[in-house]
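Subject: design request, 114 residues
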C-alpha cells in the first residue's frame, strides 16, 4: 500500500469573533496531522521517518503572541490552547511547519470594541 503524503495541513481554530479591548481571550487550535514519531516500522520492517509538526506560531496585530515547538512526544492531531489579550481589530495569523517542510497557515479575524 503506498504511503499517503500530506500536501496541505488543515487546522480548526476557535477564537471569539468579538471582544472588548483588554479582554483576555481563549485561543484554541487543532491541527490535522498524523505526527509520526519515528519510532514505528512499516509492514516491511522499515522505520517510518519522524514527521511531526515542529513549530506553531501565532501573530496578532503584527506581534508574535504564541510559539510552540513540538517533538515526538506530542499526539496526533495536536490540540493547543492559549490566552492572549484583545488589543485591536485585525487578524490572528497562525503558521505551522512539519519535519517534511510542509507548511500550513490560517488567518482568523477578530473585532475589538472599546
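Subject: RE: design request

Done. Sequence follows.
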Amino acid at each position: 500500500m503506498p504511503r499517503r503524503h500530506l500536501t496541505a495541513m488543515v487546522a480548526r481554530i476557535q477564537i471569539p469573533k468579538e471582544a472588548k479591548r483588554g479582554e483576555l481571550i481563549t485561543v484554541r487550535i487543532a491541527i490535522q496531522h498524523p505526527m509520526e514519531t519515528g519510532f514505528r516500522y512499516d509492514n516491511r520492517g522499515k522505520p517510518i521517518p519522524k514527521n511531526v509538526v515542529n513549530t506553531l506560531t501565532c501573530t496578532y496585530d503584527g506581534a508574535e503572541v504564541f510559539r510552540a515547538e513540538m517533538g515526538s512526544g506530542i499526539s496526533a492531531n495536536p490540540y493547543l490552547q492559549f490566552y492572549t489579550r484583545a488589543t485591536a481589530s485585525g487578524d490572528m495569523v497562525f503558521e505551522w511547519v512539519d519535519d517534511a517542510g510542509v507548511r500550513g497557515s490560517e488567518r482568523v479575524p477578530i473585532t475589538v470594541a472599546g
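Confidence is low (pLDDT under 50) at residues 1-5.
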